[in-house]
Amino acid sequence: MTEYKKLVSLVDTLKENVEVLYAQHDASNDANEEAGSPSTDALFSVASAVGAAVGNGAPRIAKIVARARETDPNRQIYSEMMCGKIEDLFDSFVAAVYRLLYESPLERRAQTNVKDDENQGDELADEREEAVRAAVLEGRSLLLEDSAVLADIERKHDAELLRRAAAEAWAGRVAEDLSQLILFEHQSRQVLEAEEKQNRTSLVEKKQRDKGMVLGILQLLADAKLGVEMTRRAKEKAWLAEAAKHVKVDGLVGFLPRAFPTLRCAVALLNTSERCARRCC
Question: What is the spatial distance between Cα 97 and Cα 50, in angstroms, rounded to a whole number?
């Protein structure tokens, strides 16, 4: 999904949440905590979602609008039609933020019953809208805490939390939850320490086993090599002993060159001239 489509989804959700926010806020005021009226928790949840959407969407909207308004032909990435869609998206976002900041429930109700000076109201609305546009494009804070509806919802939510906290059952539950949380944290720390010790011990034992295995393999290789060498020496000794039985001491000089061809040249060099020695070799 492209950034534009993500922002379209964000702005649509923002507009829906703003509409739901005003509707539920009016319903909670009219019902005066009657059965079926929206709870403060539900209102606060919607208000939190609206605030998060504005905070997340404002810098992204400013970035994509700046790209759409790029005047350098070499740096333009959007078509003329796409630029128009981005401007419409920007207008929708500004309208939603404007409604949050400047359209309080009391003013909205008064507008349905009393018709104010239209010119004066239009000028003020234009100034506020331009202020919102400038704040978004320049990356400045939109000051949602100045929103009358958001402030009223937050005030009611805080009052409800205090009312619950003042109740004895709630206070006891908080105390019990805190003690359970402290106990759970202590036990979790002990479990983690025990697991760390066990893992460290297992690692040391594994390294020792691996070391013993390697040393055993090296010892087996050394023993096998020594066995081969001792077998070769025993066979050579036995052959020499068997050969010595059939050779007299006087004929040893003649026997050795035949038994060991590599000694033939040495014997020839000792007893003949160089030419004869080459022929013998």
Answer: 10
C-alpha distances (whole Å) from 175 to each of 162, 168, 179, 180, 186 are: 15, 11, 6, 9, 17
Indicate the number of domains in the chain.
3
Domain encompassing residue 263: 247-281
Distance CA 233, CA 236 (A): 5
Q: Based on the fold, state whether residues 114 and 253 are members of the same structural domain.
A: no
Residues 6 or more apart from 25 whose CB is under 8 A from it?
38, 43, 105, 149, 152, 153
In whole angstroms, what is the distance from residue 156 CA to residue 47 CA?
Answer: 12
Residue with tokens 């949602």: 144
Residues 185 and 212 in one domain: yes
Statement to judge: residues 172 and 127 lie in one domain: no
Asked if 66 and 137 touch (Cβ cutoff 8 Å), the reply is yes
- Tens-digit pLDDT profile for residues 14-23: 999 888 888 8
Query: What is the C-alpha separation between 73 and 75, in angstroms, rounded?
Result: 5
DSSP state of 32: T
Same domain, 159 and 199: no
Which tens digits make up the pLDDT trace of 36-58?
445 788 888 888 898 888 888 88
Name which residue leads in pLDDT, 262 or 133.
133
Residues 223, 162, single domain; the answer is no
Say whether both 126 and 26 belong to one domain.
yes
* pLDDT tops 70 at residue 163: yes
Residue 56 sits in the same domain as residue 146: yes
For residue 190, the one-letter residue type is Q
